[in-house]
Amino acid sequence: MRACISSLLLAAVxxxxxxxxxxxxxxxxxxxxxxxxxxxxxxxxxxxxxxxKVDWSQVNWSAVNWDAVNWxxxxxxxxxxxxxxxxxxxxxxxxxxxAAVISAPAANSTPESSNxxxxxxxxxPKPVVPExxPVxPExxPVVPExxPVxPExxxxxxxxxxxxxxxxxxxxxxxxxxxxxxxxxxxxPEPSTSAAPDPQPPANSDGSLWGLTYSPYNIDGSCPDLAxxxxxxxxxxQVTGNIRLYSTDCSQLRLAVQAVKNNNLGLTIHPGxxxxxxxxxxxxxxxxxxxxxxxxxxDIINGLSVGNEDLSKGTSESTLIGYIxxxxxxxxxxxxxxIPIYATEQDAHFTSSLANVCDLVQVNIYSIFxxxxxxxxxxxxxxIQRADNIRNNVAGGKPVRFGxxxxxxxxxxxxxxxxxxxxxxxxxxxKCAAASAGYEYFYFEAKNSQWKQGAAASEQNFGxxxxxxxxxxxxxxxxxx
Length: 481
Known about the structure:
Elements: H1 2-14, E1 32-36, E2 39-46, E3 77-78, E4 88-89, E5 97-99, E6 212-213, H2 226-236, E7 242-244, H3 252-262, E8 268-270, E9 272-273, H4 279-296, E10 304-306, H5 317-333, E11 341-342, E12 344-346, H6 352-356, E13 361-364, H7 376-393, E14 400-404, H8 420-437, E15 440-441, H9 457-460
Parallel strand pairs: 6-7, 7-8, 9-10, 10-11, 12-13, 13-14, 14-15
Antiparallel strand pairs: 1-2, 1-4, 2-5, 3-5
Helix pairs in contact: 2-3, 3-4, 7-8
């Protein structure tokens, strides 16, 4: 806009070229001029100027003193000619127009600014002015292009309506719940006793965890309904974007998918099928998995774990590999071959042979069972070192992810002091260490497991929520390393 106004005014007045401080005896088109010591001032421009007759290629842009332009008046209008106290040249015709004050310095002077204007359309009713040649740099300050009519404000966007409720799931099955436990202690490297650095915010300091394990069973061990799962996952979604399930019993996968979709929770679900009870249970879980994915799609389902720590429970590696191959063949036959399949085992039991048949390597690693405790920092360092060992020596270049890690708030597992304060410290420091080392993980676990009847207190108190889903601490404490 400035380029057009400046050049077209002075060019129209001078005939074909911007000049400095030379008196102009005749005025073309009714342009009002004021002679000054420092140059020529165009005081106003009437609408009758023939803008198409300006020879833009002859404009000497470097001669324009842009710092002398009164930009405040460029887009204002006036209804009188310049003051009689100034030497004024004007036409008696068409004295109304767009006011502009633009100075050109003396011919032997150096402009204070080398900036030249950007091209734009001249104010109405003038036609659009062609681009000047050569194109000059953009001037500063920038003046916004005027708009005769202010645009109507857009209406605020509406929240998307929740997805309509899905059909009610079938009655929960009565198969036995998986009695999974946190890992028993494998051999571990000597922990470091070096002091931890001063707390600093991590790169992603929103207080969230990458993932949480989630077991939906009620405190008494019964199966939950959709309302319960929805209520719990709404809270989980405030802490993480990923959840890991261990089984499909109690319709938990179906309920979780419905809860996420019905409430737009933005969670990704990483299901599992339970194989500890044998081939029949494995087949039942697999059938339910296929049914759910075919009904609801796989857009929020990412991967399928075949079992959990089964090698430490006595299942042979060959049997586990056979299950993995069986699951892969079934999914390919159902048109679901894009879903990653993997085992989840303690790091001490994961071998290269098992890694070869998995799409990723998911390991459960705990330091809470170590025979030596020196500090939470050392305990976190220990699990990262053990994951590094899997990544460097077992995974064969495949992604490595923590299937479980955590710290109990009560009970006794040996030298490691179990308390809520140490649970918070471990979660905080592990989150930062895992992010720094480039590991995805599922933190164990979402809620306390009082449904594990007869289990040790340490096994029941890993949750970051209580058994009735009340937060055990301020998750904002996870913001600092």
